[in-house]
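REQUEST ID: PR-0412
SUBMITTED BY: lab tech R.K.
PRIORITY: routine
TASK: structure prediction, single protein chain
INPUT:
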Amino acid sequence: MNMKQFADWLSEKLYLGGRIRVEEMDDISFALEVVLSHIISFGTILLIGVIFDKSIETLIFVFMFGLFRTLNNRYHAETFLQCFLLTVGSLLVSLFISEIILSQFQKQFIILLSILNIILVVFSNSAYKHTISMEYIVLMIALNVVVVACIAIIDKRLLIYIETVALILIISTVFSKQNE
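STATUS: complete
OUTPUT:
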């Protein structure tokens, strides 16, 4: 049973139990699907943060995904399972990459990721006829500039993590524009 089927089943149970009217079933089902999907996804993300002792990184991930998703549509998976795996996978990949880059290459890696992110967001917007919101572009460029400016004062693993999350967000935005 997928998430939509489960939400439909719950909605039907609420209707049969006299808790909602028949004309409310579709709206309630959709709301249940969204709420349950978010609870499971973000609950898993928070649990991973606790298990790996990466609370700051987890909060940054949730903040960045939430902020950039509101500014511009990103790729939307067709099913809850695909969305769940892509979201949790993005968190895990970002955590993994930030931990494996050797300390002598961290500064260079941050700068390269920042340049790549800026080039991708600017040139992708041109390639897709300026369909990426200006707020998204400005905020993404500002984020990358701030990360590079903070190289001397903030843990480089955290900066690599932020740049990796930004890269995933940009790629998912570009991918969504390709599929429009």
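NOTES: The first helix runs from residue 3 to 16.
REVIEWED BY: pending
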